[in-house]
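Troubleshooting: if your tokenizer reports a length mismatch, compare your output against this known-good record of 213 residues.
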Amino acid sequence: MTARAAILSRLKAGVFRQPVATQAAADVPYPLPTDNLRAQFIERLSETHAEVRSCDAESMPQAVVDWMTDIGAQQQWVSQTSALGQQLWKRKPKDAVWVDPQAPMDQDRAQVFHDIGLAVTSSHSALFETGTIALIPDQHEPRTMSLVPPIHLVVVHLSSVVGRFEEWIRRYPACAEHTNVLMITGPSKTADIQQTLAYGAHGPKRLLVMVVE
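Known-good structure output:
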């Protein structure tokens, strides 16, 4: 018997079948840590190769601007109409080059995408289990902001963190049916070529997360 025939025979015999659990995984709660959620969530994010800083709600806008300054990208995408963007523009450094993603592009779009080095967006929520961040792009913060620039800085509020994906669906049923939800777990990466992990293949090569307590 060939190896192919042996595998097919075992599949047909149900060798690989596992008994169905009596309780669905979605019904099993995934409790959030009661002790120092911030530190443990930061650890989960770091495991996905995200770069993380934290702050409180009052200092968040300035903390984000300071991080943007530290990065020093040539041009940075910051919405002027989103709730987050309005707070940031009030604190814009005089020498910083910020671009509103809704502003008319005077130059070739491809060149604009090449020049933008960083984009800042808010987030909708996050999943503690996998360190995943959920975004719902809109006209204020379009999808391109989190996919095109090489660096994506996203603000995540601890109050929006849920245990796992099934809980996220239950808490935000309307969002679960949304057609434009982005689930981000770490920077863009692929191992398609020679099984070598490479970052930045299909999106930002760096993911910066500001955790707000």
